[in-house]
Structure formats: C-alpha cells, structure tokens
Design a protein that fits this description.
This protein is α+β, with helices and mostly antiparallel strands. It folds into 2 domains: 41-138, no CATH class; 145-258, no CATH class. Helices cover 54% and strands 13% of the residues. The chain has helices spanning 2-8, 17-40, 91-105, 123-129, 140-153, 156-173, 176-184, 197-213, 230-258, and strands spanning 47-54, 60-69, 75-85, 117-118, 135-136. The strands form 2 sheets. A 3-stranded antiparallel beta sheet has the order 1-2-3, covered by helices on one side. A two-stranded parallel sheet has the order 4-5. The longest helix has 29 residues, at 230-258. 12% of the residues are buried. It is found in: Nucleus. GO terms for molecular function: zinc ion binding. This is Zinc finger BED domain-containing protein 4.
C-alpha cells in the first residue's frame, strides 16, 4: 500500500494503523452520526423497522432501520444500528437491544403520535412488542415458511432422514477427497441451514442429482458417516415434489412484494 501511494503521489506518507484506528475512524464515525441526526430531524415521524437474522456461520444480528419523508416529500431510509446478539433470543433481550440502538441515535419523537405495526410471526418478538393497542399484520411469506417448517417437524421419519442427508453432505464438504469425487459428477452438495427449510430443499435436490449421476457414488467416499438407501432416495424425491411448488410460491410472493 505504501509503495502504491508513493508511486501515485510522490512524497505522500499514508497514515499508520494506529492513526487510522484511534483517530481517523472515530472522527469519521462522529461526522456520520452528526449527519444522521440532522437528517432525522427533517421528518415529522419515523417508521422504525427491526429484524433479526442469522448468518450462514450461525451468528445472529439485530438490525434497526428508520424510514421517513421530509418536508420536500423525499423518502429517506437510514440504518440506525446493527448489533451482534449472543445467547438466547428472549423477548426481554431483544427489547433491550432495540432500546439501546434507538437511544444511541436519539431519533426525534413523532409529532403525530405513535403507532406500532407488528409484522413478525416470531413468538419472542410478538410477546415483547405486541399489545392490544398495536396493529399485528402478519408477513405472509414468513407465515408460509413457519407453516411448512412446522409440518416437516411433525414427521419424525422425515427429520431423521434430513439429519442423515445433512451428515452425508458434511462428510463430502469436510473432505477434499470426497469433494473431488462429487466434482467429477459435476455436482457440489449444498449445506443446509436448520432454520430455513428452503436451504434444506436445495440440499436434498443436490444429493438427488448425485444419485442420478451415479447411484453408487456414496460408496466411493472416504469416511462416509451416513449411508442412504435407494428407498430413502425415493422418499427424498417425493419430498422434493411436495416442497418445490411451495418454494416456487414463496419466490413469486417475494417478487410481488418487492415490486410494490
């Protein structure tokens, strides 16, 4: 980096790591927070949106976004905060995190009163934020996801089979030799997230494609911890035929809502 800077601008010395970390970044953060507070003062009221999601590595985060319309009828959306949530996602913990983020940014109080609209279907969020005076408009996409997940969880045979498929996929992903075997078939098995049935569907589909390429492919793996029978492959095929239309419906609903 220093060589590039000296070549681009002779005589220029880039700041050291300590200067960037201890001085430049804190000052840049203060300037951004000041601009954000000034921007928030231009609206008579705010729409605060909060959401919790989990990354592919299993880390949970709480994000809060503020949206408003200024005096010139221009729309604005700003990120108030994004914080890592550790431990259990209890109602009190979620509420405290949300209050902490809002207090840090000090959003202006709306002049036309306060209305909360709850769109989540998660019990912890509903229990903390929902009261008789609030509006609860359930998100149709999330409600569909929860319904499908609950239906799958009620069948022990399916759950045991999904665990078996997950172990098989992990045995491939963790071994370079096993990965080479599946790469020769032109299929890379997909990992699944336990909280998202759509990712489990993609995992099942990838394993089925491997069996379609070579019915004996799993016998060639090194240190295979799970062996799936052909009868179980047929069960997985039937499960895919049931879940695929629901996945298509979910994608269609997401596109329709994003266009509104």
């Amino acid at each position: 980096m220093q060589h590039f800077a000296s070549a681009a601008q002779p005589g220029y010395a880039p700041p050291c790591y300590n200067t960037v970390w201890d001085t430049l970044m804190p000052h840049a953060l203060e300037e951004m927070e000041a601009k954000l507070r000034d921007l928030l003062q231009n609206g008579d009221g705010l729409v605060l949106s909060a959401d919790i999601w989990t990354s592919r590595r299993g880390h949970s985060f709480l994000g809060i976004v503020a949206s408003f319309i200024d005096g010139t009828f221009r729309g604005h959306t700003v990120l108030l905060g994004c914080e890592h949530i550790q431990g259990h996602h209890t109602a009190d913990r979620i509420y405290q995190k949300g209050e902490h983020e809002e207090e840090d940014e000090e959003p202006p109080a709306p002049s036309q009163g306060h209305v909360e609209v709850i769109t989540t279907n998660v019990d912890t969020m509903i229990n903390q934020y929902f009261t008789v005076s609030n509006l609860h408009l359930r998100c149709p996409i999330h409600m569909l996801q929860l319904a499908i997940k609950d239906a799958v969880n009620e069948h022990d045979n399916i759950n045991r089979l999904l665990v078996k498929v997950g172990k098989l996929v992990k045995s491939v992903r963790k071994s370079t030799l096993n990965t080479e075997e599946t790469d020769q078939l032109g299929v890379r098995p997909t990992n699944a997230c336990a909280t998202r049935w759509s990712s489990q569907l993609r995992m099942i589909q990838s394993v089925i494609r491997l069996f379609q390429k070579d019915p004996l492919w799993q016998n060639k793996l090194k240190s295979n911890v799970a062996n799936i029978t052909l009868n179980q492959v047929r069960q997985l095929t039937h499960l895919v035929s049931v879940l695929t239309p629901l996945a298509d419906l979910t994608e269609k609903m997401q596109k329709e809502l994003s266009q509104k």
